[in-house]
Design a protein that fits this description.
Blueprint (H helix, E strand, L loop, with lengths): L5 E2 L5 H4 L3 E3 L4 H7 L5 E5 L6 H9 L6 E7 L9 E7 L9 E15 L2 E3 L14 H6 L9 E4 L2 E5 L2 H9 L1 H6 L5 E8 L3 E3 L6 E5 L7 E6 H15 L10 E7 L1 E4 L6 E10 L4 E8 L13 H12 L6 E8 L2 E7 L10 E7 L2 E6 L4 H5 L25
Parallel strand pairs: 3-16, 6-10, 6-11, 6-14, 13-15, 14-17
Antiparallel strand pairs: 1-2, 2-3, 4-5, 6-7, 8-9, 12-13, 15-16, 16-17, 18-19, 20-21
Helix pairs in contact: 5-8
Length: 389
């Protein structure tokens, strides 16, 4: 898949080709990123055989996914065909419910003599609340909030389910409105990780409610997650037919050196059958501003996984928006609207932050089949992306 203006994470060629993160070019961008600017990455599946992968759920060995085919109506790519895979059953042709198990693994990180634990009460930033409990009660997990998207009531649902219903609303409504793509969350015991000084650092914070933030080197961390952590969780039920996510608390990821910062989360895929996964940070400090608080980063990554689980769904070129300074050609629904929020959701007196997300029609062209005829789930995009140059 060809991209321009793509900064690839990693020191060695093999790693360079595996990770992709969007960033500005030049040294000034890295200075801006250090401790302040937040980016999102994706680790696409290498050498994907879509036919073989589609057979995996039929054999009970992989995620339930559907294949879509669409012809672009976008300027510069009119009539060009695209095909990809998404999690669940198709909202275009079905009206049933799919449920995918999501395993949440809290990570307790010991960095530089400090412990960053999502299972401990946060008196400094969360008024004594436990971050993991806050996440458990969030609209990412519970289905108690009635989502109204661009003036359309898409029903009580988890945010990922509400987004997917809104994303294909014209089709969902035409099929009777009963389509759902639900996530069944299971919370595993916390895992303690001590990366050591070679692969981690303490980052000073000049704003927010605390003076320290954790940092972990993303290439080492990804190797640990895929090579050690995920295999060790097989006895707990983690495997290719479900989606493990890893919760980092007030800890971000960096590329190579702590100054090359900050990566809030990413989703990836590897192996045969394909295993998908996603680490994400839960931020209570507030140093990154909009698009980073509490479950906002989780909302970015889970919804990108839902619509682009392998990181390989192709689109016409788009860019110069959100975190993207050039052009890219993949169906990453969060990247175009990084730092844009969906309206806050309050549950049990806690105000949650969710990221606004781009609709399918924004990538492939009008007319919109999304809720309210818009091209994102809070109406920021009122038309599809134009030609990207």
């Amino acid at each position: 898949m060809q991209r321009s203006s793509v900064c690839k994470i990693g020191a060695m060629a093999a790693v360079l080709s595996a990770f992709m993160i969007l960033c500005s070019s030049g040294g000034a961008a890295q200075e801006q990123a250090a401790g302040k600017k937040l980016y999102y990455a994706v680790k696409p599946l290498q050498g994907a055989d879509l036919n073989a992968i589609q057979a995996q759920p039929d054999a009970g060995t992989g995620l339930t996914m559907f294949t879509y085919k669409v012809k672009s109506t976008r300027t510069g790519s009119v009539g060009k065909s695209y095909s990809g895979m998404m999690v669940g059953q198709s909202p275009i042709t079905t009206n049933g419910t799919t449920t995918t198990t999501v395993y949440v693994v809290p990570l307790i990180l010991k960095i530089g003599g400090h412990t960053f634990s999502p299972t401990a009460a946060d008196s400094a930033c969360l008024a004594g609340k436990v971050p993991l409990t806050v996440l458990k009660n969030s609209p990412m997990v519970v289905a108690s909030h009635d989502f109204k998207v661009n003036g359309v009531d898409v029903g009580k649902a988890q945010y990922s389910d509400a987004f997917q219903r809104a994303n294909f609303w014209m089709k969902v409504a035409a099929n009777g409105g009963t389509y759902h793509n639900k996530l069944a969350f299971k919370f595993l015991p916390a895992v303690t990780v001590t990366p050591g000084s070679t692969h981690s650092a303490l980052l000073s914070v000049t704003a927010g409610c605390t003076g320290l933030y954790g940092g972990i080197e993303v290439n080492w961390f990804d190797s640990f997650v895929t090579g050690t952590l995920i295999p060790s969780l097989a006895s707990k039920g983690v495997g290719p037919s479900n989606f493990p996510v890893f919760m980092l608390y007030n800890t971000t990821m960096y590329n190579g050196m702590p100054g090359s910062c900050c990566i809030g989360g990413y989703h990836g895929a590897f192996g045969t059958p394909v295993q998908t996964y996603s680490p994400f940070q839960f931020d209570s400090v507030g140093i990154f501003g909009l698009g980073a608080e509490d479950v906002s980063i989780m909302s970015h990554e889970v919804n990108e996984w839902q619509d682009d689980p392998l990181g390989t769904n192709p689109t016409p070129a788009w860019g110069h928006v959100g975190q993207v300074s050039g052009c890219q050609t993949n169906l990453e629904v969060g990247d175009p609207l990084s730092e844009k929020n969906y309206p806050n959701v309050t549950i049990n007196a806690f105000t949650y932050h969710l990221q606004e997300l781009a609709f399918f029609s924004w990538f492939y062209g009008p007319p919109s089949i999304g809720a309210g005829g818009k091209f994102s789930d809070h109406g920021t995009f009122t038309s599809a992306q134009g030609a990207c140059r």
